[in-house]
Amino acid sequence: MTEISRLTRAIRTGLEWDTSVGAVVPPIHVSTNYRFETPDRRGGYDYSRSGNPTRDLLGTALGILEGGQPAVITGTGMGAVTTAVLACTEPGDTVAIPHDCYGGTWRLFARLAERQHLELVVLNFTDTAAAAARLRELRPTLVWLETPSNPLLRITDIATLTEAAHAAGALVAADNTFCSPVRQQPLDLGADLVIHSTTKYVNGHSDVVGGAVVAREPELAETIGYWANTLGTTGGALDAWLTLRGLRTLPLRMRQHEQNAAAVVETLIGHEAVGAVHYPGLPEHPGHELAARQQQGFGGMLSFELSGIPAVEAFLDGLACFSLAESLGGTESLVCHPGLMTHAAMPPEVQREAGITPGLLRLSVGIEETDDLVTDVRAGLARAAAVDA
Known about the structure:
Radius of gyration: 21 Å
Oligomer: single chain
Number of domains: 2
CATH topology of the largest domain: Aspartate Aminotransferase, domain 2
Low-confidence stretches: none
Shape: globular
């Protein structure tokens, strides 16, 4: 039989799967319940919270892409985070998280720590040697990585820190949302779990909310699945079907996202209104060489810094191709102010520690015409520069 790549196998997951009418595209199984043969003998499915054929197809595709077990599909990205954390920790366990992680993730860990479910340690994982040394001292139960980070696109050495975490007896979970599974595969670098907000690049059309957890080993995958069912965090059939449809175009979309992001970065670099540009594709980015080794591209996300709120407001006022909105990874271009939007759950002092400034803007660069995006950004920068003049 012809050998085919992970990517092709994932894209073709579910095609010609339905044998009842010969459909090429798989149907949506929306039934909430399934017939038992006898009271003590069920078929492959019994209740859709516990298992659903359509959801399983998406899980299979993501498992193939990440090189792990079939993914556990959840109703939201934070549902995936919550399921993974509760499945992997006991009350009193120590968990190490990045100092600059996504605001919703930080909020969850902070609240769990307040309720004494876990001991929380915040580390700068971009300082690889220092972080590895701290892991050896702390001996945590779970190490949570996010690379590239949200919103500053910092890069974490997954392989080195995973090795240190394993030596300390910890499991490692890596949030791979920014790269998507076509640009980075943390399980291949040693991680135990990969987390996705499939709302973002995997679905790619800003019309479905969802999440996924992919485990490297079968036993851990079974544990994650048990907790997703117990907590009721599993996703719905229609959402899974739409996300699988979106996943089939992920490689094509990512190429255009990256091409457009590179053009926007070139427009930002050296502009008088811009204090800093955060994009791992830049040779001067602190994580550039590491990103080039562990990723297969630099993605469509970037952030940059203006002088402050007045410049931010001027940049935003008049944009034609960027919508001011949260989320990312859709076909449309978005601009976000992390401090007031996605990371608002972080107190000001935590934002400062993470490097989130009042002038920071995050761009999710879409797949529109490159020249239109560049023109729009250039005009916004001119407005910001006029404020600073």
